[in-house]
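seq as requested:
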Amino acid sequence: MSDASFDPGPLADVRVEASGEQWTLVFVRELRHPPETVWAALTDPGQLAAWSPFTADRDLGTTGDATLTMIDDDAHEDLPVVVVVADPPNVLQHTWDTDVLRWELTAIASGTRLTLRHTLQDRTSVPKAAAGWHLCLVVAERLLDGKPIKPIVGSKAKDFGWEELERGYGATLGIASTGWPL
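C-alpha cells:
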C-alpha cells in the first residue's frame, strides 16, 4: 500500500465531555466484527502490536498491572499501566500514562459499536487523539478483515492524513487545531 492510496474514510462520531480539569474524547465507530473478535484485538498483545500505537507485555483481558510500550518511529517508551476493568467482551478500562482509556463494545446487527472514552488532561489534545485513534482503528479493522497493513504510528501518521483528520475533528469538536506534534 502506498501512502497516496490510503483512504482513512469519514470522520467518526465524536464529542468531548468536560469534567473538572480533565477532558474526555468520546469516539464511536462501528466495526464489521462481533464483540469477541474486537475484544481480542484490544487485549491480545500480538494483535495490539499489529494496529495500535503500543505493544503490551501481557494480555490486557484481566485486571492488574501491565506495561505498554509506546512506539514512535524508532523510539520506544515503556509506560506502567493498570487494567482496572476487564469485562470480556464488553468493557476494558486501563490507564495510559496520565490518561484513562475505556473501551465499550456493544453488539449490533452489523458487528460491534465500539465506544472509546479517552480521558486527557489537555483539551487541545482531544482532536489529536481523535485523529490518532481514527487511523489506528482503520488499521485494526483491516487486520480483522484479514487484510492487514502496517500500524500507522508516530510521525508516519502525517503521511496517512493525520493532519486533515486532526483539523476535521477539531472543527467538529469546536477545538482549534494546533497541528503536529502530538
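Residues 59 and 111 are 23 Å apart (CA to CA).
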